[in-house]
Amino acid sequence: MEERYMRAGDTVGDISEELIWSYIAQLTSAMRFVHSRGKAIRCVHASKVLVTPQHRVYVSCCGVLDVIGDKKAPLPDLQAEDLRGLGTMLLETLCRSIEASQSHNLSASVDYIAAHYHPDLKDLIVYLISQPGGPGQTTIFSASARISGRLLEQLDCTYQHMDHCHAELAKEIQNGRLFRLLVKLCMIIERPQRDTPAADSWSETGDRYLLKLFMDYVFHQREDKDRPVVDFGSVVQCLNKLDVGVSERILLMSSDGQTLLVVSYADLKACCERSFTELLIAGSYTHSGGFGGRSFMQQQQPGAFAGPIGYGASGGGRAG
What we know:
Layout: H1 2-5, H2 17-35, E1 49-51, E2 57-59, H3 64-67, H4 75-95, H5 106-116, H6 119-130, H7 140-146, H8 148-188, H9 197-201, H10 207-219, H11 232-244, E3 249-253, E4 260-264, H12 265-282, E5 284-286, E6 308-310
Parallel strand pairs: 5-6
Antiparallel strand pairs: 1-2, 3-4
Helix pairs in contact: 2-4, 4-5, 4-6, 8-11, 8-12, 10-12, 11-12
């Protein structure tokens, strides 16, 4: 905190009120955790508070004075010192100077905060530093009660952030679903080399021919004058429909234009399931992600083939 906001010659403007309340919520939460267990932090200072690029704050060096055997004062006095340290640190951070809490600057520093920030912030700092009622009467719990409205606002921001993270995670889940579908299609389409024994047992006829035409329909469309169509939205839409297996029908055409087929996405999904199941039955696969069998082009026995099919725990034994 000290390195970030109190460096000499730093010309950055005032810290936003939203950010400082986020810091207060995190620091008071940490202090409540410690004090509620009958302990004291004993090192609440700007040089001991770590700030991440995401504005998460962490209190370091907790318990160091206890470990080295520093003479302890009564617990209420130690916890009161934590509160005073929090108020002092907030004052210095907002004024961007480690000298803001000095006795000869204290009044001017409080006036500066009153002029630039909400009165709630000034009242909290004055409450933490002056501690009306003395140790035992002014606690982190009473301080939290004074700013409960602000803490609820921070809680609401946390829930909004969680909702955003869940939305982004849902997008990644959808990406993984389409990736698995593409892996299955790529394993099925154009698998054997020509003029090899494996080609006789895995020719692109029937189900596999339909899937080959579908891949051309999705990825190799062309406009007038033979210009390629590059439409990411259309690709995602077609793959989603295939994964769900909707009843919508599409027209598939061979590259030479001699074959025209009208087929639904549900039929194509069934073709994909059957073809991939054949691979799983006849192939050699591993759950570890590595290849557990020989090359697809190597015959295991006459009339059969061995294909390395790697799918992880998220894949499953059937398509879809």
